[in-house]
Amino acid sequence: MYTEENQRGRFPLRDILLKAIIVIIFIILIIFIITRLTTPNNSNNSNSVNSNYDQVFSENLKAMEDAAYSYYTEERLPKEVGDINELTLREMINSNLLEAFTDADGNSCDVNASYIRLTKNEEDYTLRVNLKCNEKEDYSLTKVGEYDYCEHDICKRDSSKENEETAKEEDNEVTDEVDITEETETTTTPATNNSNTNNNTGTTNNSTSNNNSNTGGSSGSSGNSNNTSNNTPQVITMYEYRKVTDPVLSGWSAWSSWAYNTERYSAIKCGTTDANCLREVQLYSRREQVGTSNGRPVYGTVNYYSYRTRTLISSGSTDTKWSTYNDQSLLSQGYTYTGNTR
């Protein structure tokens, strides 16, 4: 009797444990299946968000590059090899070069760490556009130069447009050479006939008569040559040359002491040879106590500014001349082609 009752007491407990284990395994399987089904969707959503963020970032980077082409006018271009002209995103916005923008999450980009920078090379420039938004920072490097086909003073190099310009110049050169060659032949031919006629005159009567007949023929051909030369229009292409003399500026004075920016000055950074920019301004802000309220200190953002100046010693100049192609006299004096012809 004791053995049967003991066995009866253990069997229900074993059944309960088995059922509990089965239920737990079943729950684990359900959780695993749900996780596998939902993970790809979350990954796709994450990829979609990242793709949208990168697209907005690239558009903002392109907007800064486009604004750089309109900003770097001739007077703002660095002149000496290695010279740099840099402008922060804050200064670009303050100068109305572009409107303030945000990233795909609606957060403002870093206006101090984002900038455009133009560096002078031997024959062209390197444009660096740096953009930092939240945790993402990237930049682009572009070779630019002063080309005849640029809409602004500088632009990207376009080999297809350069080939078109080269073909036009070659056509102009060939036309000039043909005109000059024809003119030389028509002017020298009559002179040769006349000298032959004079040398043969004064010998025998027969030779005189022969020379007279030859002279008549020569005169007729000479007249025809002159008429042909006069009737042919001569085209001479003139090329425009330009020589730019940079202004002479003094060195910068020392920066002034920091003062309260009650006038709300904007930051100003001058180009190396910008004769119209004689005063640079830099800004600084910090949190500090501005007063008390009910015995407690009140803190706020206080803006400061500092400046430095320079003077214009002599203004720059631009001299333009017109001459024939490859005028070594002008080229040796520092004149360069502008690409204009007439």
What percent of residues adopt helix (DSSP H or I)? 40-55%
β content, as a range?
A: 25-35%
Taking strands numbered 1, 2, ... along the chain, how are they ordered across the largest sheet? 1-2-3-4-5
Span between termini:
128 Å
Helix and strand content put the structural class at alpha+beta
Q: What's the average pLDDT?
A: 78
Topology:
Layout: H1 2-71, E1 84-88, H2 89-94, E2 115-120, E3 125-133, E4 136-145, E5 155-156, H3 159-200, H4 205-231, E6 239-245, E7 248-249, E8 259-260, E9 279-293, E10 296-309, E11 312-314, E12 317-323, H5 328-332, E13 336-341
Antiparallel strand pairs: 1-2, 2-3, 3-4, 4-5, 6-12, 6-13, 7-11, 8-10, 9-10
Helix pairs in contact: 3-4
Give a written overview of the molecule.
This protein is an alpha+beta fold and 342 residues long. The protein folds into 3 domains: 1-157, no CATH class; 161-235; 247-314, no CATH class. 44% of the residues lie in helices and 26% in strands. The protein contains 5 helices and 13 strands. The strands form 4 sheets. It has a 5-stranded antiparallel β-sheet with strand order 1-2-3-4-5. A 3-stranded antiparallel β-sheet has the order 12-6-13, with no helix packed on it. Strand 2 (115-120) and strand 3 (125-133) form a beta hairpin. Helix 3 (159-200) packs antiparallel against helix 4 (205-231). The longest helix is centred in the N-terminal third of the chain and has 70 residues, at 2-71. The model is unreliable at 174-229 (pLDDT under 50).
